[in-house]
Amino acid sequence: MGATSEVGRLRTVMLHRPGPELQRLTPRNNDRLLFDGIPWVARAQEEHDAFAEALRDRDVEVLYLTELLTEALAAPEARETAIDTALSDLDLDESLRSFLRGHLHDATPEELTTHLTAGIRNDEVRRFTGSLVTTLLPDDAFLVDPLPNLLFTRDSSVWVGDRVAITSLAMPARKRETQLTELIYSHHPRFADQQRIHGHHFEYVEGGDVLLLAPGVVAVGVGERTTPAGADRFARHLFASGLASTVLVVPIAQERATMHLDTVCTMVDVDKVVMYPNVAHTLAAYAVTPGDPGSGELVVAPPEPFLVAAAKAMQIDTLHQIDTGLDPVTAEREQWDDGNNTLALAPRLAVAYERNDGTNARLEEAGIEVVRIAGSELGSGRGGPRCMSCPIARDPLP
Ligand SMILES: NC(=[NH2+])NCCC[C@H](N)C(=O)O
């Protein structure tokens, strides 16, 4: 298990098939829950099934987050931890907490998975409990929040080398996701004794900001989600465990359109990225390397243009850029619709949303085979094939 690049042949991936948590979205809560619309859930599931099928057709093993979670919840300590953390919200009162504890304890592992992912709404339990909180809260208040962004499995854990990093998510609506990925990696037999780095108690780092440029070279975007302190801690973890010799820290605009580095740049070959041209010329990188052994210091080089700094760290002549779209307006439209957010299955073979005609044409001109998937509903959460996948095993590059 593990991955040292973004483009080595993909063997195993973790996805999350959208489910009842998406039925929780309403026009009043979708902004807080980080969706730009109200997806048609059945169609989103069809689109997602076709995505998973396209991966299986190319011999990728697809694991589902909820199945792993249900299996992990067979362990009594996993159930205990899951229930404790789900009920730690300070908006619950004691009688409600003890009612919910009993309710979750009685649930089968499958039901518990549903409660943990789809959440619990006040009107679903109010008639069973007379607590002050349930009496006063509106019907549609969540006692346990739903997690619609679980769909984006890339953000809540990321493999670097032979370790898995449990990330630390910045947005309140997503924080609980890493409690679930941590349960999976701690309790599922498939990951027994798996070594981990980072963790949800550390400074913010989201997987969408982590790009494995080459073995030992990791780029980390810093912007709306990953913070400078998160990048610092993550770099230290990578150096300490020998997983990287250079970390490129890449500031990106703190805006929804560019929430993660992978919304403006992903890799499609060992030396090719698809990149948003409207930022390509301003994107800079600070190369960070470990200081003298034992000093605990990091050495931070002055900023350089991203493509230059990346090529240097990767020890190649040029990191080639393929543009999103054909002109600035098409580029802006297709960047918004995750045209940059491709998932490489092998060098020069990548999954992309079919709607981004201009970008896909560019990719093909550059010799990249594009596996097109539909994403009209999936895309309403603002994430593409790369955000929706957590590569667990990729072959090393030859
Ligand atoms: N790696 C990514 N670009 N993930 C996209 C995440 C989208 C999600 N709705 C959020 O705002 O967090």
TrEMBL record:
Example of a GO MF term: arginine deiminase activity
Pfam families found in the cross-reference section: ADI (PF02274)
Catalysed reactions, semicolon-separated: L-arginine + H2O = L-citrulline + NH4(+)
Entry EC number(s): 3.5.3.6
Keyword Thylakoid: no
GO BP, sorted A to Z: L-arginine deiminase pathway
Pathway assignment: Amino-acid degradation; L-arginine degradation via ADI pathway; carbamoyl phosphate from L-arginine: step 1/2
Record-annotated active site: C387 (amidino-cysteine intermediate)
Family matches, as InterPro entries: Arg_deiminase
Family, as annotated: Belongs to the arginine deiminase family.
Protein name (record): Arginine deiminase
Organism from which the protein derives: Nocardioides thalensis
